[in-house]
């Protein structure tokens, strides 16, 4: 049984319905040796199979929103340095994973996807910061007529959208915060993030939770009150079977969900 709709969800229209189905392709429908992650080809492939799409967005040196996950360029482009130190034009000339695909802008990605798929846009705003990326994404969404949601780990990004663009569906990301990057944070902050203490700040419409948090009694309480739960990143049918009774949808990769 999925989370029951809460009053006010009608403002999200089709985006609310597509939050529950179909499954969401993580960084598009990409494959090793095929379409690279977060590429236009991966988004085309997801649309062709009828999936929703999750993608990552961050700002360039000239203030443009581009689709790319990592802070640094090495893993996917072979170039050195940070994405934020390059312009959108420079990034648009970089080849992804030795293919002809390049780093797309968010506007180009949404133009390719159109109304064919629900898009969950993960805002890569550093924790505690807010402003330029949120404004840029909000401006771009004005010209997009497909179902959309913004997601991310920074509760202040969600609070910004709640105040400035409340008709956009918002999903707060979280996980166990026990990996190498998380261990660099102050212990009290890690405990707070892992315990979902940021919900009050973010005011999200749904939660996107890592598999290391599921099943979660705390998440079950939110879900019982009408806040859907999306699991990430699910990489096998067995992983989904283990948590599906506590979730409403999945962000997946590596298998046909």
UniProtKB/TrEMBL annotation:
GO terms for molecular function: phosphoric diester hydrolase activity. Residues 21-257 form the GP-PDE domain. Gene3D superfamilies: Phosphatidylinositol (PI) phosphodiesterase. GO terms for biological process: lipid metabolic process. It comes from the Bacteria. CDD domains: GDPD_like_3. It holds the Pfam family GDPD. This is Glycerophosphodiester phosphodiesterase. It comes from Caulobacter flavus. The lineage of its organism: Bacteria, Pseudomonadati, Pseudomonadota, Alphaproteobacteria, Caulobacterales.
């Amino acid at each position: 049984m999925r989370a029951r709709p809460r009053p006010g969800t009608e403002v999200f229209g089709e985006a609310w319905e597509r939050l529950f189905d179909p499954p969401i392709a993580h960084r598009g429908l990409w494959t090793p040796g095929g379409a690279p992650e977060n590429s236009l080809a991966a988004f085309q492939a997801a649309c062709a199979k009828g999936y929703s799409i999750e993608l990552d967005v961050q700002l360039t040196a000239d203030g443009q929103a581009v689709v790319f996950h990592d802070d640094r360029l090495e893993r996917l482009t072979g170039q050195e340095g940070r994405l934020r130190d390059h312009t959108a034009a420079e990034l648009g000339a970089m080849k992804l994973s030795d293919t002809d695909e390049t780093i797309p802008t968010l506007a180009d990605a949404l133009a390719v996807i159109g109304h064919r798929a629900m898009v969950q846009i993960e805002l890569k705003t550093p924790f505690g910061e807010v402003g330029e990326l949120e404004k840029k994404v909000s401006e771009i969404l004005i010209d997009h007529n497909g179902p959309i949601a913004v997601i991310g780990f920074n509760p202040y990004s969600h609070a910004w959208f709640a105040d400035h663009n409340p008709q956009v569906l918002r999903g707060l990301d979280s996980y166990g915060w026990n990996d190498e990057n998380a261990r660099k944070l102050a212990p009290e902050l890690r405990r707070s993030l892992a315990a979902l203490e940021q919900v009050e700040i973010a005011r999200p419409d749904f939660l996107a939770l890592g598999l290391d948090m599921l099943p979660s009694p705390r998440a079950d309480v939110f879900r019982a009150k009408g806040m859907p739960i999306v699991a990430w990143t699910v990489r096998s049918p067995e992983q989904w079977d283990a948590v599906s009774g506590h979730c409403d949808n999945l962000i997946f990769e590596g298998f046909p969900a």
